[in-house]
Design a protein that fits this description.
single chain, 168 residues, alpha+beta, three-stranded antiparallel sheet, two-stranded antiparallel sheet, 5 helices
């Protein structure tokens, strides 16, 4: 199991499987579903005894291969820590197909603006009938690209402010 296939997205809303007209599953962000008290208490208990946890292959009734356990436990601990803090989390396969509404929600932009980005070719998409579908990893890649552009612009602005003595 590769961590590259999963993306923890605590800022995204709870994901629910829905079925589109072609009977393929797509994911839909909904209003964040905050864990209830029982879930939080359970997660806190797991964290207290985290060193005692092992992965078990239930088919063979033995401890699972340790090859990927550190990666899996790191991911699992991050999930449990978020739940213990009362945060909603999502685990989404990178190749999940999203609607324009879902993609706009993740990018925190309007749907019409997202469509303009798609039409300009800034984010790859494909058509399913008359509907646009965008891969989750393409949405995340665009979000990271925009974050990098913003960070570079802020660095340049800070440097200019320092050069003119406006920033100390």
């Amino acid at each position: 199991m590769s961590l590259h296939l999963l993306h923890l997205c605590a800022t995204m809303a709870y994901m629910e499987t829905v079925t589109n007209s072609t009977k393929k599953s797509v994911l839909s962000p909904l209003t964040a579903k905050i864990p209830n008290k029982e879930t939080v208490d359970f997660a806190v208990g797991l964290l207290r005894h985290f060193g005692d946890l092992v992965l078990v292959d239930t088919k063979k009734n033995e401890v699972a291969s340790t090859k990927h356990q550190p990666e899996i436990f790191a991911l699992f601990k991050q999930v449990v820590s978020s739940l213990a803090s009362g945060k909603a989390i999502s685990i989404v396969p990178y190749d999940a197909l999203l609607t324009t509404h879902q993609s706009a929600h993740i990018l925190n932009v309007s749907r019409p603006y997202l469509i303009s980005l798609l039409e300009k070719g800034e984010i790859p998409f494909h058509m399913v009938g008359s509907h646009r579908r965008i891969r989750f990893d393409d949405v995340i890649a665009h979000k990271e690209k925009q974050r990098n552009i913003t960070n570079e612009s802020l660095k340049k602005l800070t440097q200019l402010s320092e050069d003119y003595g406006l920033y100390k």
